[in-house]
Description:
Elements: H1 3-7, H2 15-44, H3 49-74, H4 78-105, H5 110-116, H6 119-142, H7 145-158
Helix pairs in contact: 2-3, 2-6, 3-4, 4-6
Amino acid sequence: MTSHSVITKPASVPAAVHGAFLAWVAAIVAGVVEAAVYVGSELSTGADAGDLATGVAMRAAIYALAVWVFVQMRNGRNWARIALTVVLGIFGTLSLVIEPIGWLADGNSLGTAITDASAADLVIAASRIAHVLAVFVGVALMYRPAANRYFRAARRRAS
């Protein structure tokens, strides 16, 4: 299977489900960009490369598992749709927004943060925003009427 065949929409998959799949892939891409910029920034300040490598390896394994679940969702597996909704849609989103919300709750200024931000900080913030938006789009598309019909039909075929 080529990487192109993983991205190409199979004929029987509704546009909403394929769109959800692409949104989930976009979320991973945004996460990879954020991680790469973070690692590069940390390495430039003398951070321990071994610790960073461990973190990158763990993230790569999680992303690989997530892509496998994305494919299962696109193939009509309702368990994958539910897992994506709960694990990434709820808990994943919370993990991405809790730090900035806490930072703002501590009285920090968004305006000052933007003014004082480095290019790396701005790319990380933009990729995190893109990541969260892609997750929201992915979840919403998985529950469109055509998607619901697709998952019900796949469940009936499996029975």
